[in-house]
């Protein structure tokens, strides 16, 4: 027995020794293969990608590249790629190929190499690889979107159609993980669009028919985004909402009826909201108001598991933004209210130029984004070589400080986009844009919308920005496309009160005026406080404060449910009299102040008293929105 145990022990030890010896030999081999010689030169690194793997890393592996620039150059580059940390390929191009030689390559050849490299490297959406994912998105836009786009299947040299299908499917899933690719060759990526003005208990004929492709579905799916952009047509209103928002949507539709809206409204869903009761409620609003309401079910285009786990809350807004069928759309939150016909927004000249128009948020100076967040955004900037060799350029240099005061002293003009950029990237001010209403031309802005969606999906900036709003301008900025932000500061509407020589208005609504001091739209409903149960919540949180001021929950609840009376607006000067946040309405109530001289002229901030005709119209809209008899 002792000999038997000893023999087993010796055999087990022998196996361990053999395994350790083999492991040691493997380590020595790998170290020898991957370590550069003493005289090897490490390529210059362009850009800081932390420990992420660039899609360009390994850019020149494969026979295709050797045929283009020669075997000797290729082997030289490959040896450096094996030895160096992950880095931008453009540094490798500059050092080992030469920028001129790369520039002379045809775009199709560049994109073929880029696509293969993306497929080889792969990238997930997390903090360490987000710069690479953004880089991949810019590669995709350079090759397959915009003017004279290429087609992904033309970039492949697979030996069989089955291999081409598999590779293209993998590439699409890598870049756009939310797209459905399970049946890429048999199931067309196309939404179901229904006209809710039709009669019947449930959905009937499709409003937007699936395109006829002579059975070649795969041609649509292979280059889906350019086909989707080209299929977009017309103008419309776009909304996304959940079951709990149906009442608010009914109020908005009544306002649109009052404004004699004549453009269609699309409610875009991921399919999760497609319940008979939800659909029937929307249909009733169509019948009551005569508004053209269309329901877009985008589920045939989306990966169900991905949607279930990733597309929540504010992220649904990107689905609505991207998967509506309009060329030009007004994306509006269900609690935002226009005071002018919606077609007015399409006529803004700067919108026509850039294809996207946004409004400013409250300029709250004391709320800041963490410095790390801004550093992470800066890390998404393209390298110098990327800008030089494939033309990627941003409107502002994220790594450099812009001294606006110096520019102003020198008489240089300052755009509002530059002010917003500086406020965020150099002053770390958290709130810049109000996304309650955004005007978008999909043909011009599809790339930026996809990148904005990608940024939001990553979760990296969850604690850096509030919801979706800042991504509407950061997406275009990081895509290298132009964008427009309304130059006027946000305001508050309501009734004036006097406070120690200041004129103030306090309300939870954020409003937006035009150059003629007319009210364009407001965000936050048209009650004193839109949140259900807010009075009880406020008393629970600050019982002494609210008891001293409002006595009982019922008194406060009655106030909160009152319609907002609109007398005028105040546009504050936040440098002199900043916005003041109060405890009312679950701390969503803000006060703004202006100071006037004896003649009534504005000295600090701006007080706007609406003329009687405009005030009557605004209060009529408030009445329509608030009157429960108008909402089922």
TrEMBL record:
One of its GO terms (molecular function) is alpha-1,3-mannosyltransferase activity. Residues 1-33 form the signal peptide. One of its GO terms (cellular component) is membrane. It is a single-pass type II membrane protein. It is found in: Membrane. Pfam families: Mannosyl_trans3. The keyword Glycosyltransferase applies. InterPro entries: Alpha_mannosyltransferase, Nucleotide-diphossugar_trans. One of its GO terms (biological process) is protein O-linked glycosylation. Keywords: Glycoprotein, Glycosyltransferase, Membrane, Signal, Signal-anchor, Transferase, Transmembrane, Transmembrane helix. Belongs to the MNN1/MNT family. This is Glycosyltransferase family 71 protein. It comes from Huiozyma naganishii (strain ATCC MYA-139 / BCRC 22969 / CBS 8797 / KCTC 17520 / NBRC 10181 / NCYC 3082 / Yp74L-3).
């Amino acid at each position: 027995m002792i000999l038997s145990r000893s023999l087993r022990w010796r055999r087990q030890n022998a196996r361990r020794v053999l395994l350790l010896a083999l492991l040691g030999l493997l380590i020595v081999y790998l170290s020898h293969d991957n370590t550069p010689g003493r005289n090897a030169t490490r390529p210059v690194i362009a850009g800081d990608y932390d420990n992420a793997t660039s899609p360009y890393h390994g850019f020149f592996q494969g026979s295709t590249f050797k045929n283009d620039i020669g075997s000797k150059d290729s082997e030289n580059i490959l040896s450096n790629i094996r030895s160096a940390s992950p880095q931008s390929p453009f540094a490798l191009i500059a050092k080992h190929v030469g920028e001129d030689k790369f520039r002379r390559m045809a775009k199709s050849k560049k994109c073929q190499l880029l696509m293969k490299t993306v497929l080889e490297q792969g990238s997930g959406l997390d903090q360490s690889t987000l710069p690479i994912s953004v880089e991949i998105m810019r590669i995709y836009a350079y090759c397959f979107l915009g003017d004279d786009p290429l087609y992904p299947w033309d970039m492949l040299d697979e030996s069989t159609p089955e291999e081409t299908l598999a590779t293209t499917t993998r590439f699409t899933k890598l870049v756009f993980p939310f797209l459905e690719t399970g049946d890429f060759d048999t199931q067309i990526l196309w939404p179901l669009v229904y006209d809710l003005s039709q009669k019947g208990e449930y959905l009937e004929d499709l409003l937007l028919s699936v395109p006829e492709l002579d059975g070649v579905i795969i041609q649509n799916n292979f280059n889906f985004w350019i086909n989707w952009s080209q299929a977009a047509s017309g103008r419309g209103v776009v909304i996304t909402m959940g079951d709990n928002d149906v009442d608010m949507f009914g109020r908005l539709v009544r306002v649109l009826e009052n404004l004699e809206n004549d453009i269609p409204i699309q409610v875009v869903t991921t399919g999760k909201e497609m319940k008979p009761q939800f659909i029937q409620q929307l249909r009733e609003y169509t019948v009551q108001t005569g508004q053209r309401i269309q329901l877009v079910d985008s589920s045939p285009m989306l990966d169900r598991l991905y949607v279930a786990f990733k597309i929540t809350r504010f992220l649904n807004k990107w689905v609505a933004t991207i998967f509506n069928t309009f060329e030009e759309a007004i994306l509006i939150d269900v609690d935002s209210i226009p005071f002018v016909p919606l077609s007015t927004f399409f006529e803004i000249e700067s919108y026509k130029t850039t294809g996207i128009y946004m409004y400013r948020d409250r300029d709250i100076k004391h709320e800041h984004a963490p410095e790390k967040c801004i550093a992470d955004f800066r890390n998404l900037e393209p390298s110098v070589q990327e800008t030089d060799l494939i033309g990627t350029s941003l409107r502002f240099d994220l790594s450099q400080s812009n001294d606006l005061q110096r520019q102003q002293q020198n008489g240089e003009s300052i755009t509002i986009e530059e002010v917003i950029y500086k406020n965020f990237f150099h002053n770390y001010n958290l709130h810049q844009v109000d996304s309650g209403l955004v005007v978008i031309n999909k043909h011009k802005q599809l790339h930026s919308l996809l990148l904005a969606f990608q940024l939001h999906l990553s979760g990296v900036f969850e604690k850096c920005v509030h919801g979706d709003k800042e991504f509407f301008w950061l997406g275009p900025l990081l895509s290298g496309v132009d964008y427009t932000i309304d130059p006027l500061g946000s305001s508050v509407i309501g009734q004036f009160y006097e406070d120690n020589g200041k004129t103030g208005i306090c309300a939870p609504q954020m409003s937006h005026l035009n150059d003629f001091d007319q009210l364009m739209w407001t965000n936050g409903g048209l009650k004193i406080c839109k949140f259900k149960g807010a009075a009880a919540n406020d008393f629970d949180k600050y019982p002494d404060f609210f008891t001293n001021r409002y006595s009982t929950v019922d008194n406060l609840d009655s106030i909160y449910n009152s319609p907002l009376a609109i007398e005028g607006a105040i546009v504050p000067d936040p440098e002199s009299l900043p916005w003041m946040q109060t405890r009312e309405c679950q701390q969503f109530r803000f006060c703004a102040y202006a100071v006037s001289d004896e003649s009534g002229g504005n000295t600090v901030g701006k007080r706007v008293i609406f003329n009687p005709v405009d005030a009557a119209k605004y209060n009529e809209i408030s009445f329509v929105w608030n009157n429960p008899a108008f909402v089922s």
